[in-house]
Design goal:
alpha/beta; Rossmann fold
Length: 443
């Protein structure tokens, strides 16, 4: 079989797969006639491929000829990982499918082919609509700007939001009385906080299957996206570091160095930082800096650690497995990360002058915009502690209001010392995160 016949076979196979896939729509809306190359990136198994499948349905619904739409998964073992495969691709598509005009090229994991960037840029210059998907570090925004010469727009895909989770669960809440609706939402929220938001996990029925599959995901990310992608030689050391981080609240290279030394593992701070960056490159882990106007404070304080999916963290981490509070904070972080404007906004945590901690500070153009505390419990002593930190931070930033997100139905506006503390139920905050990040706060 020559290369053109192979391409035809592969393209025909994936066209059939894409057209017959059982797709549940997500909240990611890709443009149908993009002006730039669209890059879809994010962690493994978060649903990027199915977002491309959904795009095909939208294109067909808008009257685009099926023979102008081509989806190819370059992880197909039949794909020859050579530049010649790309060189012959367009001529073969034109010969075999006879499309007219601009093509829609949906290219999954194309980074496996050498010099793919030049080929993609050339097809873009020829006027084709191009969508690229993958979980590799090569497709992260800071790399795409260079590789595709500033002609790309990146969409970062996360596991399911709580709203998407409800859609996947086919939760019908429209005709329920208010109290019953809240009870159903809290039941779904408990499942969401326990098993996370990976699409496939959400659709599984048995808890043991969910945990087992989450652990399989972890191993796949560990070996393919961390060890292999970053050419890590000391696999055992990486696994120890990763598991320590999954059980930790904060990251500091000195503290981790001392922890490893105390259990008889010799390494360097430089290696620790290299391994930490490798973990971040897989989208598995995020770190949050302390907010301060002084750069030395940002560097001096440890960074808080969050993971892509709270369900996976609970399936792997002993200290997180039974902690609803930690799972909730992780879920709120990902919800914030999903909804901020990455160009203008950034998330931090904050320590007040009295060393009271605020979980999240949303900063827009270097100016604090929103203050958010998260607590799973509704105990009075805990709420007083959260209020105290929030009020001190509001005073220091000269802000009039802040949020406390709690896992109850308690929704209340509390005024104290001319400051406003808004209590928001977790389910409501997760469903309307973007609204709560707006300024001023919606009523």
């Amino acid at each position: 079989m020559n290369i053109s016949e192979l391409i035809y076979e592969i393209v025909s196979f994936w066209k059939n797969v894409a057209l017959n896939a059982n797709v549940i729509p997500r909240e990611v809306n890709l443009p149908l006639e993009p002006k730039n190359i669209i890059v879809l990136t994010g962690g493994r198994r978060v649903g990027k491929t199915y977002i491309l499948y959904d795009l095909i349905r939208k294109l067909l619904a808008n009257g685009v000829d099926e023979n102008k739409i081509f989806y190819i998964n370059f992880e197909d073992e039949r794909v020859i990982p050579q530049t010649e495969f790309l060189t012959k691709l367009i001529p073969t598509l034109i010969e075999k499918f006879v499309p007219n005009g601009r093509l829609y090229l949906l290219l999954d994991e194309i980074h496996r082919i050498p010099r793919w960037e030049s080929w993609v840029h050339r097809q873009y210059e020829r006027g084709h609509f191009i969508y690229i998907s993958g979980s590799t570090t090569q497709l992260q925004p800071h790399n795409m700007g260079v590789a595709l010469r500033g002609r790309s727009t990146t969409y970062v895909v996360y596991p399911l939001s709580f709203k998407e989770f409800l859609n996947f669960k086919k939760a019908d809440l429209k005709n329920l009385p208010v109290e019953e609706k809240r009870g159903v939402l809290k039941g779904y929220l408990n499942e969401y906080l326990t098993y996370g938001g990976y699409p496939e996990i959400t659709l599984l029925q048995k808890p043991v299957e969910k945990i087992s599959r989450l652990q399989e995901y972890f191993r796949a990310i560990f070996y393919r996206d961390i060890i292999e992608a970053n050419r890590i030689e000391n696999e055992a050391l990486m696994e120890v570091i990763l598991k320590i981080l999954m059980n930790s609240i904060y990251f500091g290279s000195t503290k981790l160095y001392n922890t490893l030394k105390s259990i008889g593992i010799s390494t360097s701070k430089s290696t620790i930082m290299t391994y930490k960056r490798a973990i971040e490159s897989s989208y598995l882990m995020f770190q949050l800096e302390l907010f301060s106007y002084k750069i030395k404070d940002r560097l001096r304080y440890p960074k808080k650690i969050y993971f892509l999916d709270h369900g996976m963290r609970r399936a792997i981490s002993a200290s997180y497995s039974n902690s609803q509070t930690k799972a909730l904070e992780n879920a709120i972080f990902i919800a914030l990360q999903r909804n901020i404007n990455p160009v203008l906004e950034k998330i931090y945590y904050y320590k007040t002058a009295g060393n009271y901690e605020v979980d999240f500070v949303i900063v827009e153009n270097t100016k604090p915009k929103k203050l958010i505390q998260v607590t799973y419990t509704h105990e009075e002593k805990v709420l007083k502690r959260e209020e105290r930190a929030l009020l001190k931070a509001m005073k220091e930033f000269q802000m009039r209001e802040g949020y406390i997100v709690t896992n109850t139905d308690y929704e209340h506006k509390k005024e104290k010392n001319e400051k406003i503390i808004r209590y928001i139920p977790t389910w409501k905050f997760l469903l309307k995160t973007k609204n709560y990040l707006q300024h001023p706060t919606p009523k």
